[in-house]
Amino acid sequence: MPQYCVYTVGHGSEDWDSFARRLGGFNIEILLDVRTYPYVESSWFNRDRLEGNSRKKGWEYLWLGGKLGPLTEEGRVDYLSKEREKRYQDGIVELMNMAAERNVCIMSSQLDPMQSHRHHLIAQTLMRHDIGVLHILDSGELQPAQADLFHGLPG
To answer: Residue 103 sits in which domain range?
Structure first.
């Protein structure tokens, strides 16, 4: 049985109101942005707009894409190497400390968690630390994260 759970969500091309409604029933306290590049021109998911809109909903917004984004220090997508980086490990500890006290939702851009490092990297790390991960799908339903074959879970 997990110690506690962390939510994940992707925004895709959804508008802010739909996105906020989708998260509304999960008592989110912290929206944790793990996108490497949190700025997209003329969009609600531009970091500054997202931070302001989140605050209006009563959510704290934090950007940890520098630590928990998908790219390695060399600028590659390599989840196994990324997991070994000190900066990633520090970000995971920061995330776990937050999530032990408050409801945290990890956000990236991909709607489908199976196309995102939220699932293939962060969720895999958290599950090995006995932390549950629930993906909020675009339908609003929850999907528990499962172990990836290349990561596996001990025991």
So the answer is: 5-144
